[in-house]
TrEMBL record:
Protein source organism: Acetoanaerobium sticklandii (strain ATCC 12662 / DSM 519 / JCM 1433 / CCUG 9281 / NCIMB 10654 / HF)
UniProt-recorded Gene Ontology molecular function terms: cysteine-type peptidase activity
Keywords: Hydrolase, Protease, Thiol protease
PANTHER family, per the entry: MUREIN DD-ENDOPEPTIDASE MEPH-RELATED
Protein name per Swiss-Prot or TrEMBL: NlpC/P60 domain-containing protein
Keyword Hydrolase: yes
């Protein structure tokens, strides 16, 4: 165990996770929030980050970043508030999924398929990890805003590419014009990347726009 683990209140992290479940927080790709505001929606990495922030611990956003600031542990070493991942991002390019160990072989996570925060058995995650080199969050950065400040949002190149591909899909289906303008705006404000993925998925369901 690293020295930075000593100031983590793991029970507080789990208590926050259970509170979000009790509040029926829904899943929404790209949804983020900062305590003490109670969000209506979060995605899986936003859920993990919110729970750690509530305990005063700064962790990055995004499952890719959360993987790369954590270290592998054996299943037998799991403690409450440790991390479970669905994929190894170095081996799989699909959008990853992350959750928190609840104890007694169970996990709590914000799930697309469950449409919100849910508790599952140990079969849901394949990779087990623990955050390293953690730091405390200055109190002045934890306010009542439902939208996290931009300094707390990190967007990977892979996530940007998902958004660029989605913009091209929307253009091909006739839902937007001048995709290059939207791509420029994306790189100016990358924290909004997920909205393009959601819009493209919806557009693919509806099919080509009728003129």
């Amino acid at each position: 165990m690293t020295d930075t683990q000593n100031f983590i209140n793991r029970q507080e992290i789990i208590d926050t996770a259970r509170m979000l479940k009790d509040k029926h927080v829904r899943y929404s790709l790209g949804a983020k929030a900062v305590p003490p505001a109670i969000p209506k929606e979060l995605d899986c990495s936003g859920f993990v980050r919110y729970c750690y922030l509530a305990a005063g611990i700064a962790v990055p956003d995004g499952s890719w970043h959360q993987w790369h600031v954590s270290e592998p542990i054996d299943k037998s070493q799991l403690e409450i508030a440790d991390l479970g991942f669905l994929y190894d991002p170095n081996k799989n390019s699909e959008i990853n999924h992350i959750g928190l160990y609840l104890g007694d072989g169970k996990w709590i996570h914000c799930s697309y398929s469950a449409k919100g925060v849910t508790v599952d058995d140990g079969k849901v995650f394949k990779y087990f990890r623990r955050f390293i080199n953690l730091s405390k969050v200055p109190e002045k950065h934890l306010d009542a805003s439902t939208n996290p400040p931009k300094w707390m949002i990190t967007v990977t190149e892979k996530e940007k590419q998902y958004a660029v591909d989605s913009i091209h899909v929307l253009a091909d289906l006739g839902y937007i014009l001048n995709p290059s303008v939207h791509i420029k705006n994306l790189y100016d404000s990358p924290e909004n990347w997920a909205q393009w993925v959601v819009l493209a998925n919806m557009a693919k369901e509806f099919g080509k726009k009728q003129s």
